[in-house]
Amino acid sequence: MDQAVNYARHERVWLREHPELNEKWIQARIAEDPSILGLGDLVLKDKERIQPRAGRLDLLLHDVDADRRYEVEVQLGQTDESHIVRTIEYWDIERKRYPQYDHCAVIVAEDITSRFLNVIGLFNGSIPLIAIQLYALRLDDQVALVFTTVLEELSRGFIDEDDGAQEPADRGYWESRASRNTLEMTDQLLAVLRQWDPKLELKYNKYYIGLAKNGTPDNFVVFRPKREFLQVEARLPRSEGTDRQLEDTGLDLMPYNKKWGKYRIRLTRLDLEKHHELVAEILKRAHDNRT
């Protein structure tokens, strides 16, 4: 017999009015476990980070896999103009100091009104910005924190599709850069992709070999041939099932690229022969997932 589930009544607590649960307390909870923000598996890089002539950044979080940093500002109560400006200012300082990382500004507040969502949304068109609303809920003598993303970072175009930023190349360029073996593997995987779209063709660029259809880039899969292996990058939402499938094979997997949403696999000729069906399945999913 199934166990009965007990209902427990809760009430919202406004932390700005609370005598003990203040902003420092919230910062400490996030610092202990940054995953509670819902931004992924992040680690704490710094807390109360001094900014030259601009105060202190509440929290600096780091996504190791994606080489990405999040500049997080916490405000209790209703967000306001100064809070938005301060968040963007800290983001700008950090990205200039450490340009080797990708940076994203994060506002956390108890009350993000529709008016300020509109204002933040305007900035979001040119600045990577995420707004998270914080709810504190009392249950008996305990307090739970709930973080809800109310404004996602604006999805930008994929860098691999911005051919204006890439120098064109040709087959000869890649023959001198890679190897005959890995280029043949690239041709073989193009043939697999053409099962579902016969009009696909390879588009040679200086830093990768992409795909095109009727002359238009369609880079849901990108190839980077090396001398010893072929790096295949398939744009596909991450899932536990796909992770498990790939990990069980023992293939040479690079960390999932969270920024661009790509699985990255380094294939040798032997790998491709042994796991051809699974590789073809990954390509098919990427094909079907393209927008």
Structural description of this entry:
The protein is α+β, with helices and mostly antiparallel strands and about 290 residues long. It folds into 2 domains: about 10-150, Trna Endonuclease, Chain: A, domain 1, CATH 3.40.1350.10; about 160-290, Transcription regulator MotA, C-terminal domain (Aspartate Aminotransferase, domain 1, Alpha-Beta Complex). It has helices spanning about 25-30, 80-95, 115-125, 170-175, 180-195, 240-250, 270-275, 275-290, and strands spanning about 10-15, 45-50, 55-65, 70-80, 100-110, 130-140, 140-150, 200-205, 210-215, 215, 220-225, 230-235, 250-255, 260-265. The strands form 3 sheets. Strands 1, 2, 3, 4, 5, 6 and 7 form a 7-stranded mixed beta sheet that branches. The chain has a 4-stranded antiparallel beta sheet with strand order 11-12-14-13. It has a 3-stranded antiparallel beta sheet with strand order 8-9-10, with helices on one face.
CATH class of the largest domain: Alpha Beta
User: Helix/strand/pairing class, anyone?
Assistant: alpha+beta
Helix content: 25-40%
Average pLDDT over all residues: 86
Q: If helices are DSSP runs of H or I spanning 4 or more residues, what is the number of helices? A: 8
What's this entry about, in short?
This protein has eight helices and 14 strands. It is of the alpha+beta class and 291 residues long. The protein is elongated and about 70 Å long.
List the helices and strands and how they pair.
Blueprint: E1 11-13, H1 23-32, E2 43-51, E3 55-63, E4 68-78, H2 81-97, E5 102-111, H3 114-124, E6 129-139, E7 142-151, H4 171-177, H5 180-193, E8 200-204, E9 209-213, E10 216-217, E11 221-225, E12 230-235, H6 240-249, E13 252-253, E14 262-267, H7 269-274, H8 276-289
Parallel strand pairs: 4-5, 5-6
Antiparallel strand pairs: 1-6, 2-3, 3-4, 6-7, 8-9, 9-10, 11-12, 12-14, 13-14
